Amino acid sequence: MQVLLLGGHGKIALKLTPLLLNRAWNVTSVVRNPDHESEILALGQGRKGKLNVLISSLEDVKNVADAQKILDAVTPDYVVWSAGAGGKGGPARTIAIDQEAAKHFMTASFATSRVKKFLMVSYLGSRKKQPHWIPDDQWAGIVHTNTEILPTYAKAKQEADEYMTALAAVRKQNPVGAFQAINLRPGILTDEPATRKVELGKTPKGRGSVSREDVAIVADLLLARDDTEGWIDLVNGDVPVEDAVEKVASEKIDAVEGEDVEGMVKRFFA
């Protein structure tokens, strides 16, 4: 398997890269800064898969053709978006990367026959409607973050997530082979060591936290299966991570419930 990992120097991606390589999958890690190449390549030492680094700025991905050039160069089976402006460069850069570049890569990936999976690392509060499983006080915290603390980021992530959801819905209407659109939505990120214990799928902990290493572990497990898709919320909890992934997959748990998927499709593709 060839995996294209976008945002390869991000903290989650650095944890995810060795896990993917341990599956004997080959990984091409896309990073902006050439100074990070040696750090990335060191992650591949002693692994089963091959690791390559592609120096490319996602800020330069201005259209679908720009994204397609990278896909054509790497020829991935799976695409992982773990990139973002990280609050650097102001609102314009956040929109350019977290929203527009993400959408361009999704458009290209969904239209490329070789690509079978697209995993987006988003965040738990990226939604417009309060779902029935998140209590009022937790939802109020999400709304405060989305409107007062990180409004540009929240807007960009919601736009990208809704576009991905619409693309997936359209793809299901006109299936051209199997395809998994996985939207992994962690809560507040920490740098604590992995606990391997989570709440996954839907969680009332709208303001819950999760370690970046646990996010990487979950992403790896989701990619390794052929029956995972949809919106999957993630915080640390009490369920062993393998059991949590099995439950989400077998029960088809999708946290998009309550959102207007039909409206998303109409907005983007009507």
UniProtKB/TrEMBL annotation:
Domain of life: Eukaryota
Pfam families from the UniProt entry: NAD_binding_10
UniProt cross-references to InterPro entries, sorted A to Z: NAD(P)-bd_dom, NAD(P)-bd_dom_sf
Domain NAD(P)-binding: 7-219
The family this protein is said to belong to: Belongs to the avfA family.
Name assigned to this protein: NAD(P)-binding domain-containing protein
